[in-house]
Every structure is written in C-alpha cells, then in structure tokens.
Write a structure and sequence with these properties.
6-stranded antiparallel beta barrel, alpha+beta, 8-stranded mixed β-barrel
Length: 381
Amino acid sequence: MASRDQLQAKCQAMMPSSTNFEIYDPPKAVWVWTEKKDVMTAAVERGWNTFVFSSHSRKLADEWSSIAMIKPLFIQEGEIFDSENKRIAIVSEISCPEQLEQLQLLDGQAENVVISLMDWQVIPAENIVAVFQGSQTKVLAIGKTPSEAQLFLEALEQGLSGVVLKIEDSEVILKLKEYFDRRNEVKNVLSLVKATVSQVQVAGMGDRVCVDLCTLMRPGEGLLVGSYARGLLLVHSECLASSYISSRPFRVNAGPVHAYVAVPGGKTCYLSELQSGKEVIVVDLNGRQRTAVVGRVKIETRPLILVEAKLQIDDSDDKTKYSILLQNAETVGLVCPFQVGKHNMSAIPVTTLKVGDEVLLRVQGGARHTGIEIQEFIIEK
C-alpha cells in the first residue's frame, strides 16, 4: 500500500507546471425584445439596457427612453438599426443545414449577426461557435427561456457572443441574472486559511456520502465540507491511483450525511440533500473555484474518523474548533497548503493524518437558514 509520502509525491507530480487555469471569457451581450414595461424595468435594474423593438413600436421606444437610460434598436426587413438608422446587426433564420452553411458568408458583413434557430438548437449553436471562432463578428441567438439562453451561452464551452431574449415575462430576466451571477462567482478566488489539526479520533460507524460529479478533478481539487457551517475543510478528490484501487477523479468521498457542503451562491446544503443534477463548487488549494454538476450520490455505512482543527493565529485566544468526519480509508484525504521543501505536499490521507498537520480551511458565518448565511446567535458543537 502506498505510504503517505508516496501519495503526496504522486499528487504533486500530477499537478500542472502552471497553476493558472483561467481562460479569458469575454462578456456576453444580452438584448431584450419585449413590449412589457415590467420586463424592461427588471432588465434595466440588472444592467441590461439594450432593447429590440419592431419598426412600428418607435412610440413605445420613445416612451421608455424618457423614463430609463436604454439603447433602443429597431428590427426591419431582416436587419437591426439603432435610433440613428445605423445598421447594427443582420438577422438570419436557421431551419436547415443549407442555411447554416450560408451563415458563414455573413462573417465580416456586419458587426453583429442575430440568429433565430427554428428547429434544432444544440448542434447548430455548436456549429456556429466553431465557424465564427476568432471572428470579429459577434453572433447572438434569439431565446425565449433561461434554459435556451444558457444553452446558447455555453455551446462548445465558449458559447455564442450573447442572446436576444424575446420574452413577456420578467421572471426570465431574474433567472438569467441568477445564472450570470453563478458564472461570475467562479471567477472569484475563495479565501482559504491554514488550520492545524488538533485531534484525530476513530469515531465508529456512520452513513457517509460519495459525491460523483459530471466532471474530472485535478490533484489539489475537492469539495469544501464540514460538520459546522462556520468552517469547511477542503476534502480531496479520489484522483490518485493506489496499489489496490484505480483512481476515480470524478469522486469525492465527502463525509457523513449531516455534513455541510459548499454550493454555488455562497450557500451550503447537507450532503444528504445532494442528488443527480444539483450543483456544487469544486475548489483547488489556491482557492480557485468552478461549478460542477452532481451525477450520482452514494450513501453507504462505513467506519468514520473525526478530525478537528484550529486556526493558526499568533497571539490569539481564539479556541474555535473546526470539525469534519470522514470515512476511515486511505483514499480519503484533506488538501493541505503547498509548502516548498516539505515533501511538496498537497493532500494528506486521513489514515496518516496526525496532530500538528496543516490543512486548508474556509472560514465563514456559522448561522444558516436553508443554506443561506444569516446574522444570528448560534452555538454548534
């Protein structure tokens, strides 16, 4: 069986030479095509002020311009113009492969191309992303629901340049803004601090949760999990191979059913609440985060080990304990700070974890209501 140092050496050896995984993601355009005032208000309040009107709705455009700072655009005979009659975009309907091929001829003919996909959506959107990759022409797709908009914005990962929301329900605006907030959240680096292990104790049997994601994790990545919401420890994925079991880089053996796990929106939920289709955030040892979809959750009875840790703060009387229970197995580990000259550690198996070891911790507010942080007196122990 691999020793602690061998597992740590493997983990570090698998780490990319550069830890910068960031990819430039240009801002996505959102245009709104509506005649409902409440939709306009909701969009403006969320920073989207470009509106598309039919040519006979100039009076409505003037009315809205008098009460809000908007940029009106007018669609007429397959083209879109601004208020000064300057052509802003070409509109193209795509209902067959031949029309999709002809779309390539529009590259460079206009600053923007607005497409209306009449039948299929996923494959044409992916083909359009591939065709216009590297082009100066921006391609926007007309969508009527948040799910359609998300599809267009994520096609082939890069997505189209934006969407035109043709809607009459302000709820679509709210849901799309929530989606953009989640997208922007992953660009923020979470603050992780060093904590010192203060206790390691065998704790008996319990129902533990394996979280299998629809994505692969790299060494140094995992899920933030803890017994108390005030502090979540970074639990490493099972991405490392050993002598007795193959690696499962999609899995985190995360802890018992009662534990909190970090999910998008700065929220937490119980591990027992996770199920196929829900989202969690994957975090690396530098605090970079990304959203991942849960593919499967396995709950099984296994032997557990209790780990407690305290913050490393000089000259502090803070005795706050941070706690997690994990399955007592060699494949389960906690991510620790990278330190040159100390075996280049990035994860420690719980089976060899000892008092004095350093691990990574996310400190946050302890009071929660349905996973949302609130200001309230609370004691957890």
